[in-house]
């Protein structure tokens, strides 16, 4: 309908006008696609992180995605969608070939593919085709025939490190983690997704909730779970890269976001926060830095807990010396151990989406068994919306409804949680949940959902679900 085209045009136009107005009022220019990324992108000072700009960007992207789907010939959309795998594959090749590091010294002038290829160990004719495809998708720039330079997006592939003889083995160590995201996504993740069709349709695995019956096992021909594979000698490089990739993703969800996601002042002084699956405890550490009267227990696998002790001793030794933090190695699904005091909060940050319903319900029941009458279950995780209007008992205060004809979940502006949902389905049989999906497993685990709140500081930070013993 022509009216939809007009509405989408107006959404894009008015939203861009708002972005330009903020740039003018703040004296900040909007970053150019042709220039490498600036560190301000990862700080509150970045123009994209201004609340009005962030909201306008979401509207522009959602409308642009829908406009393309509306105006482009449907057969063209089908073809590009069916062959969209070429983009992550090409990004993975560029990352593995260290193209971003190789061409960095050339700056905006770029480097000829004949000079890039010997340092990457690739055929220049083939590499040129990969880089030209990426430049066509706005990753890198082709500044002259077969001459390529870094741009805003491709600069994210640059670890900032100098090339060395054993660079492939050490590339991601102490790096920002963004290149590791591409390496992970184009390797074990894409290979797992490649086998999803068979796993989801074969009777033996179609209804499985087991972590070792996924596309990952089918591709790598193993019975080990994704996590167990990482602990093998063969999986060590991928494990280390995955850890760095997760640290890169943390730039989207900084640990300090936990402070505004829940009212920590409501926890009694001297209260106990149990950080379930807390890793190094970097998130609960942020809590007690702001509320030093609180006590913490960090729970995770025994191998992880050793690193947690080191992390706290390096970053908050006073809490360690005052014996206000304990470290417990255990399996998620074992009964809770004897705790220093009744827990006031069980905190699960980005843990629930790692487990299928069968297993997360088991974990919730273990926590419920150890809970006191006033214990709160605080879950920080994605809540994916339906692609249609769907009233629910619990809803986030998202502000105004997206203007018509945009999808209620903002479509292309909100793809990341839906992509992660399928990614983790492919390798660990888990997934993101709708609010109704969360409520279902919370109730089955013996808890009652009482609050759902959007993080008030940033729309991109994860929401919080609060439950109490049922």
Kindly describe this structure.
- By secondary structure, this protein is α/β, with parallel strands linked by helices.
- The chain folds into four domains: 2-80; 85-155, Winged helix-like DNA-binding domain superfamily/Winged helix DNA-binding domain (Arc Repressor Mutant, subunit A, Orthogonal Bundle), CATH 1.10.10; 178-249, no CATH class; 255-406 and 431-469, Rossmann fold, CATH 3.40.50.
- Helix content is 46%, strand content 10%.
- It contains 20 helices and ten strands.
- It has helices at 2-26, 51-71, 74-82, 86-96, 99-103, 113-120, 124-136, 167-170, 178-194, 196-201, 215-220, 226-230, 236-249, 258-261, 282-290, 302-315, 317-321, 357-370, 415-428, 435-444, and strands spanning 111-112, 141-144, 147-149, 272-276, 295-300, 325-329, 345-349, 376-380, 447-453, 464-469.
- The radius of gyration is 24 Å and the shape is globular.
- The relative contact order is 0.09.
- Keywords: Methyltransferase, S-adenosyl-L-methionine, Transferase.
Structural key phrases:
three-stranded antiparallel sheet; Arc Repressor Mutant, subunit A; 470 residues; seven-stranded mixed sheet; alpha/beta
Strand content: 5-15%
Radius of gyration in whole Å, from Cα? 24 Å
Count of structural domains: 4
Give the end-to-end Cα distance, rounded to a whole number of Å. Answer: 50 Å
Structural class: alpha/beta
- CATH fold-level name of the largest domain: Rossmann fold
Determine the mean pLDDT.
Answer: 94
Helix content: 40-55%
Shape: globular
Q: Supply the CATH superfamily name of the largest domain.
A: Vaccinia Virus protein VP39
Low-confidence stretches: none
Major beta sheet, specifics? 7 strands, mixed
InterPro entries: COMT-like, COMT_C, SAM-dependent_MTases_sf, WH-like_DNA-bd_sf, WH_DNA-bd_sf
Protein name: O-methyltransferase C-terminal domain-containing protein
GO biological process, one term: methylation
Keywords: Methyltransferase, S-adenosyl-L-methionine, Transferase
């Amino acid at each position: 309908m022509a009216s939809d085209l007009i509405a989408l045009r107006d959404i894009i136009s008015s939203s861009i006008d708002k972005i330009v107005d903020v740039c003018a009022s703040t004296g900040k220019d909007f970053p150019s696609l042709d220039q490498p990324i600036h560190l301000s992108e990862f700080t509150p000072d970045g123009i994209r992180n201004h609340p009005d700009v962030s909201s306008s960007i979401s509207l522009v992207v959602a409308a642009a995605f829908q406009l393309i789907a509306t105006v482009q010939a449907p057969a063209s959309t089908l073809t590009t969608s069916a062959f969209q795998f070429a983009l992550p594959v090409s990004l993975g090749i560029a990352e593995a070939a260290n193209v971003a590091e190789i061409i960095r010294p050339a700056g905006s002038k770029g480097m000829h593919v004949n000079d890039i290829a010997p340092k990457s160990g690739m055929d220049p004719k083939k590499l040129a085709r990969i880089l030209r495809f990426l430049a066509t998708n706005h990753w890198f720039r082709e500044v002259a025939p077969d001459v390529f330079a870094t741009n805003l997006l491709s600069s994210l592939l640059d670890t900032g490190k100098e090339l060395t003889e054993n660079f492939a083995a050490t590339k991601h160590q102490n790096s920002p983690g963004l290149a590791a995201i591409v390496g992970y996504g184009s390797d074990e993740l894409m290979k797992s997704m490649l086998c999803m069709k068979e796993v989801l349709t074969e009777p033996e695995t179609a209804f499985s909730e087991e972590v070792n019956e996924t596309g990952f096992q089918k591709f790598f021909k193993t019975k080990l779970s994704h996590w167990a594979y990482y602990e093998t000698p063969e999986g060590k490089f991928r494990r280390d890269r995955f850890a760095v990739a997760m640290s890169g993703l943390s730039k989207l969800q900084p640990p300090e976001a936990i402070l505004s996601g829940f009212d920590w002042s409501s926890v009694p002084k001297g209260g106990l926060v149990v950080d379930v699956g807390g890793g190094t405890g970097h998130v609960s550490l942020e809590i007690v830095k702001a509320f030093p009267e609180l006590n913490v227990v960090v729970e995770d696998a025994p191998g992880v807990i050793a690193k947690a002790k080191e992390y706290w001793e390096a970053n908050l030794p006073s809490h360690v010396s005052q014996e206000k933090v304990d470290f417990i190695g255990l399996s998620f699904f074992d009964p809770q151990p004897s705790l220093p005091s009744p827990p006031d909060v069980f905190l699960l940050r980005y843990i629930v989406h790692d487990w299928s319903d069968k297993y997360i319900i088991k974990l919730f029941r273990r926590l419920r068994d150890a809970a006191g009458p006033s214990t709160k279950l605080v879950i920080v995780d994605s809540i994916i919306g339906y692609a249609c209007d769907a009233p629910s008992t619990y809803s986030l205060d998202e502000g105004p409804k997206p203007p018509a004809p945009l999808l209620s979940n903002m479509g292309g502006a909100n793809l990341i949680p839906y992509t992660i949902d399928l990614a983790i389905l492919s390798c660990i049989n888990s997934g993101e949940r709708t609010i109704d999906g969360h409520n279902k497993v919370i109730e089955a685990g013996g808890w009652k959902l009482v609050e759902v709140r959007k993080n008030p500081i940033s729309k991109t930070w994860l929401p919080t679900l609060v439950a109490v013993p049922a």
